[in-house]
Amino acid sequence: MVSRITSRKNPLVRQAAVLADSAGRRREERRFFCEGARLCEEAARSEIAIEACFFTEKAREKYGKYLEAVQQRSGALYLVEEHVAGLLSGTKTSQGVFCLCAWPQGLRDFPTGGCPAKSPCVVLENIQDPGNLGTVLRTAEALGIEQVVLLGSCCDPLSPKALRASMGAVFRLRLFLAESAEPLCGFLREAGYSLWAAVPGREAVPVTNLNFSGMLPAVFIGNEGNGLTAETIALCGQKVTIPMTGRAESLNASAASTILLWEMRRNGTG
Amino acid sequence: MVSRITSRKNPLVRQAAVLADSAGRRREERRFFCEGARLCEEAARSEIAIEACFFTEKAREKYGKYLEAVQQRSGALYLVEEHVAGLLSGTKTSQGVFCLCAWPQGLRDFPTGGCPAKSPCVVLENIQDPGNLGTVLRTAEALGIEQVVLLGSCCDPLSPKALRASMGAVFRLRLFLAESAEPLCGFLREAGYSLWAAVPGREAVPVTNLNFSGMLPAVFIGNEGNGLTAETIALCGQKVTIPMTGRAESLNASAASTILLWEMRRNGTG
């Protein structure tokens, strides 16, 4: 059954709008808000529980194919007017499809969330830009790296921007949140991981000289502007770098991450 | 000598604002407009001729280190009021440093601009997003790929967004503009290049099976949404692909380009 929402003051709409805006509220309520026909469909096709789906009349006509999967999985359906969709949307040209979702089971604290599987792992420290974070998650998934740890004060992977850039990778990866590096590094080392801090500079091992396929690697990648913290680099012990033949230090954070993720899986592909 | 500009109606300010907005005008006048302390300094340190430099009083205090290099190379200096800088700026938080520059000598038509050097070359076809284009150019430079051809209807590498994302790589690369693929491919092949079309899918050679260091490669990369045109793929003859172990087709355009550029230089680094 489809209910109608005609007012921006509808309590459920207000809740959803707050969830879209606030990382703190998402953590508190263990829910998040998701926008876009394709992204909502990705949520529906994953293990994510969908509490409510909102869509406009126009979206029902235009995105019926995507909506079908979402509607089947959703606890409640709401047809919303355009001006209500305008309030819910974080984009200029909204598709008019939204979901209120339960917290992904794959997104947990580390290590209380359980021991990671024995497969390559990426640790992102203090990543600030949600677009960057989402892109790295999308690339990790595409290259078959299934475990990512968000260390320190990373931005929220469930923010609308991060979700959009991740193309739904957030729904399918094993994502762990770790507050501080020391227990994380200890735990990973005990589990048999070889810890590598990605740094610029010559004292590090060029990634081209490393054969990741001969080990269980955990590669630590730092913040866009400042790289990894000194503490984390020290805890990792081993350093890896991307050799550049051109101008030094001119890869952006996202390109550097792509190369490291690719090298982690390079020998496993093809 | 520093002149003062207090009005948004100043003819030079108006010219500069039009150049920032219009790719057509940039081509016509063979000039472009550049914003940002760091980027203007990069222009000054390259071969770019700087016709005029504009800066605010605040910028003079805050970005003196960058401005010095620019002022030495600039034909004319203008101290502009904040509201004038606001008109010139394409960003929300302007640094208040701008340059009016002559067309880069490294940006030329192909092949009339001369035979490319015998070094690896990337061809980008119909890239639409200036941020993507700038990022790919920045990555190419960082990895030591010095020649890039912009084929078909690529967006303008001299637009403010592309310049910003490129971190000035546009000033230093050899950039060629090519209208259509047929003469370009003929010319490259005659010059000894091995032409590779980057495509998704299984009928292509996995990039991990290719040793680019044994050849003179020209790798063709297509548009964000649609990839290369069928015509260009046919003209290249050879196809290369990025093997993915995760979800298929889920690398974004910029990540895919990064991996291909990296593989082109991988054996030459380290």
Features:
homodimer; 270 residues; alpha/beta; 60s Ribosomal Protein L30, Chain: A; Alpha/beta knot; eight-stranded parallel sheet; 12 helices; 13 strands
Structural summary, described in words:
Chain A has helices spanning 11-21, 23-29, 37-45, 57-62, 64-73, 82-88, 130-142, 160-166, 169-172, 181-190, 230-236, 253-266; strands at 2-5, 31-35, 50-55, 77-80, 97-102, 107-109, 121-125, 147-151, 174-178, 194-198, 205-206, 217-221, 238-241. Chain A contains 12 helices and 13 strands. Chain A has 2 domains: 2-102, 60s Ribosomal Protein L30, Chain: A (2-Layer Sandwich); 107-266, SPOUT methyltransferase, trefoil knot domain (Alpha/beta knot). In chain A, strand 7 (121-125), helix 7 and strand 8 (147-151) form a beta-alpha-beta unit. Helices cover 39% and strands 22% of the residues of chain A. The first copy, chain A, has an 8-stranded parallel sheet with strand order 6-9-8-7-12-10-13-11, sandwiched between helices. The longest helix of chain A is centred in the C-terminal third of the chain and has 14 residues, at 253-266. In chain A, helix 7 packs parallel to helix 12 (253-266). With 270 residues, chain A is α/β, with parallel strands linked by helices. The A-B interface holds A 135, 138-146, 167, 169, 172, 206, 208-209, 243-247, 250-252, 254-255, 258-259, 262, 265-266, 268-270 and B 135, 138-146, 167, 169, 172, 206, 208-209, 243-247, 250-252, 254-255, 258-259, 262, 265-266, 268-270.
- What level of helicity do the residues of chain A show? 25-40%
CATH class placement of the largest domain in chain A? Alpha Beta
Please give the count of helices of chain A. 12
CATH architecture of the largest domain in chain A: 3-Layer(aba) Sandwich
How far apart the termini of chain A lie comes to: 48 Å
Full CATH superfamily name of the largest domain in chain A? SPOUT methyltransferase, trefoil knot domain
The fraction of residues in strands of chain A falls at 15-25%
